[in-house]
Amino acid sequence: MEETISLQDLFKTLKKRAGLIALMTILAITIAGVVSFLVLTPMYQTSTQILVNQEQSEAAQLTNQNIQTDLQLINTYSVIIKSPAILDEVANQLDLDMSVEQLNNMITVNTAENSQVVNVTVQDANPALAVDIANTTAKVFESEIQNLMNVDNVSILSPAVLKENPSPVAPNPMLNMAIAAVIGMMLGVGIAFLLEYLDTTIKDQQDIEEILDIPLLGVISPIKEEAKLEQTTSSKRRAG
Q: Are 70 and 116 spatial neighbours (Cβ–Cβ below 8 Å)?
């Protein structure tokens, strides 16, 4: 027989297992909070802006071809900034005990569309070190690009500054706990329906009809203990 579940049955199951669902949700939130506050290392972020200046001859006549050339040049600069030629020198100047690959993973280079400004963003557990890496990377790039491409059109627009009370950008405990709450609730609901599906005990008349596939002819009401006691007392009186 094909088994169907009504909406009423779903709500009945959720109500019956509400404690389990609440427990799983609270447990997930607690774990996410502990991990976010006590386990994960706070990461701080800072950025330096580099300006790529157009030459005067190019500024006089701005065409689509010139714009495309500028964008390609900036894309090239973005690759050079994270190249070993730049990062090796940054590591040497700051006396960093890390490889070029590790330093590369800390740095993100991006540009706005049709913009001459390149943003060099650095993330690290030490906010002061992040500022030093961002500023040193910009200075080294400004110096080395003259030798690498024989151009002098790069200048530091806005250096990174160490704030008095920097706030970490990661982890985000509130977001982590909110996500954990949703996951915990979904997990609790899933376990609730799984337990209900595995529970094969007969609970009421409807279960008898569904399992045996036969109509119910009658129900024997349970005899309460008080009624049994009265019947026993009456029998003894009659016998006496």
A: yes
Parent domain of 79: 42-56+65-170
pLDDT tens readout for residues 110-148 = 987 778 889 999 999 999 999 999 999 999 999 999 888
Per 3-state DSSP, the chain is made up of helix, strand and coil in percentages (nearest 5) of 60, 10, 30
Q: Which residue from 48, 52, 50, 49 is spatially nearest to 132, judged by alpha carbons?
A: 48
For 125-142, b/e burial (b = at least 16 CB within 10 A) is eebebbbbbbbbbbbbbe
Tell me whether strands 44-52 and 117-124 are parallel, antiparallel or unpaired.
Answer: antiparallel
Q: What is the pTM of this model?
A: 0.69
If asked whether residues 110 and 129 sit together in one domain, one would say yes
* 197-238 residue pLDDT tens: 887 776 666 666 666 666 666 666 665 555 555 666 666 555
Q: Domain boundary at 125, 154, 170, which? A: 170
Last residue of a domain, one of 152, 170, 188: 170
